[in-house]
């Protein structure tokens, strides 16, 4: 249960509006194309900015803009010789145009401003970039990933160890010892990273106003203000509608700063900057290659006695990012002997960052394929193998789960899918197609983030205005927060007016980590109750309360983790090696579902993204030059409609009052985590070919 700022626990909300199957509040705006995105808000007399990237991976550049400046419609060119000076650049990713140094291919070396987008694009093509190139290290090799980071993403310890894994392996009746690889992958939300920036003079100095495609308007403020020598109050960021993010917009990246810097050179004129699809493969983060070395030791009945998961991945020499690939293994199944670790190889490449279910997606893929290999070796139903290794307490901490219910997910999924146990490979044939079914566990942490506040104000007409600087990145936050606010206030949802997506509102944490609804909803609930505590059950118009959510949401002593079971039926063409996922079915336990329509959309979307990772997604970096050659959605493949044949998402009815007063846990990321291993395991059942490296391209089966 959550606590308010006085230390008293917030009692669980009684659902009235929560759980309603309602259409999204922004649905009509989205489907009619009238929801304005970052570079679509009306402004007067804008300039258009286009970025110019470095043509090599390491060295220094000189920029010749003379031909560009002579072109019609080109207003100006900003490079390291004339760019605004930044202050206190501790994060080298944001060391933008402060020198001619180049640290990775595609790094921003110039910004062209034009009176039209066409003029700016043409000018960018005319900018000449030369320089001194140095030999760069751009090829990942597992054996070179030896450096231990201080910690991995989300603050987890790098390594963990309990018992003696080596002894468990030596004494085991059966072992699995394999390496599993996920490829370089890039976020590709439909709206690319984009911003509109305007500088104006305020009473206390310059003011920067921006509309940004971001997962955190306050996060853009806290990053850009000190770099630009401003106080946070001098920067206002709006993000009312965002066309997807998948983690790539969770942290500010160089294009956000570039828009602000370019606008500073033309005070009073708005500057619009939209990153091209190609530039997103260098400037806005990605998921690095991961290699997981997994060892499982088990008794004859499949009971695990030892688990080891060692992960290896490249990072950028400019800025360390270590994905928490082995962390999920610490809590997935019981075993007395466990060891996990993470190691990095530093390369002269673009900077990796968050991508949906960071760490958990590649980690669960490795562990769940290894579990299937163990089931095959033992001749045990893979569902039964997971039953024999289930646990009521977290194997890593010893704390109980607030709500696990993994086996219920498998039981319900097996019933809905028609699971009949393992099959002999190549035993199901339909024409030229070999058919097989597979299963895997899905999981993702249930998280809440600190630093949230909400304001509730009584309006003249008896309605309530609820304000928080949360961001809806296409996930339905506008809608679900109104349901939460309505139940917290004890009124119908049509009496609540939401204000979100503006850094001038009470602060909110990032829309990421599947923590948004939990974090923001707890703040809203606390503010609603504070309003009634202060003004009674019939507050007068104008009554208003702003309160912070508790930094400790009351989860201490529990592990708040969501689980699910994913079932897949796959066909592999015997002559071409083509893989088709004929059916995907997932059953999840994520506490109370607050809006079934939105929940299904999120889970199915995650499953489709997991399908893309299983069958299609792979960025290819040319090691000679350090750049990604698959720079568009023609060469970087994602699922099309024809690939998504039959996808079902179900959930167990439940509530998690440990997590928050709504009883909910996040669902935005768990949907991606179990799909790839379920598809890989199904492909093995179809063909007898065990694939340990994504994606499942036809060459694996030929």
Task: Explain what you see.
This protein has 702 residues and is α+β, with helices and mostly antiparallel strands. The chain is 23% helix and 25% strand. The protein has 16 helices and 28 strands. The strands form seven sheets. The chain has a seven-stranded mixed β-sheet with strand order 5-7-3-14-11-12-13, with helices on both faces. The protein has a five-stranded mixed β-sheet with strand order 9-17-16-15-10, sandwiched between helices. A five-stranded mixed β-sheet has the order 18-19-24-25-28, with helices on both faces. A hairpin with a 5-residue loop joins strand 24 (561-573) and strand 25. Helix 9 packs parallel to helix 16 (675-687), helix 12 packs parallel to helix 13 (516-535) and helix 14 crosses helix 16 (675-687). The N and C termini lie far apart (54 Å).
What is this structure's SSE topology?
Layout: E1 2-3, E2 9-10, H1 27-31, E3 47-53, E4 59-64, H2 66-69, E5 74-79, E6 101-102, E7 108-114, H3 117-126, E8 128-133, E9 160-162, H4 165-171, E10 174-182, E11 194-202, E12 205-212, H5 217-227, E13 235-238, H6 254-264, E14 271-274, H7 280-283, E15 290-298, E16 304-316, H8 329-332, E17 337-347, H9 360-378, H10 382-388, H11 406-417, E18 428-430, E19 433-445, E20 453-458, E21 464-467, H12 477-489, E22 496-499, H13 516-535, E23 544-548, E24 561-573, E25 579-589, H14 596-615, E26 621-622, E27 627-628, E28 647-651, H15 670-673, H16 675-687
Parallel strand pairs: 3-14, 12-13, 16-17, 21-22, 25-28
Antiparallel strand pairs: 1-2, 3-7, 4-6, 4-8, 5-7, 9-17, 10-15, 11-12, 11-14, 15-16, 18-19, 19-24, 20-21, 20-23, 24-25, 26-27
Helix pairs in contact: 9-16, 12-13, 14-16
